[in-house]
Amino acid sequence: MTTRFSRPSVALAVIVVVVGGIWIAGLLSPNVYVHGAVSALWSVVVALGIWRATRQAPDIRVAAWGALAMTLVVVLAVGAVVSRPKQVDEKVVTAGSASVAATNDGGSGQDSDDTTGNVLVASGSFESLAHEGKGTASVIELEDGSRKLTLTNFKTDAGPDLFVYVVAGDPQSDGDVTEFLNLGGLKGNSGDQQYDLPKSFEASKYRHVYIWCRAFTVGFTRAELAT
Question: Is the distance from CB of 135 to CB of 160 less than 8 angstroms?
Fold first, then answer.
């Protein structure tokens, strides 16, 4: 008995298999290069499966190959857009010397008449995790009691869905990143930038800054904050 599948169901199955495989590859791959290689290999495996299946069922050939081509084009296009490198150059606050307060949206800051009261609360250098990371993360308390997180001389790989987390404790793996404060999307994968810290931030508790890829649940790079 031969089972017949409708063309829409075949197309949907191909899309789910391709996207699902690429997603899982992103979760398991240690870096973007391995992810790209595994994704390409998976696409070849899917293509071979389609070739074999359509030899037995030529009526689904157009739907299967069309779905594969469309999915790969969309995945590549989306990946190119969300992973595009972005340089930022904000004027960030500093401690113990004249500084400039930056706006949250990356616009030009306003000069502060007296910033000598700023205090460096904690700082640390970025280390590589799934991706290479460089630069310094600093927590600076302003005279009004508010706190800023600054990233200076910062650089990591571009990637999709990147966020800045301050993480509690001392995570030994990505699975240990469970208690954190989300400071918002990473403004750029390179350059000086700063973020507002909420009142709930405690330097003794939130001891690491993570650049976190939310889409693939993986840490790109992190800095341990030493007080």
Answer: no
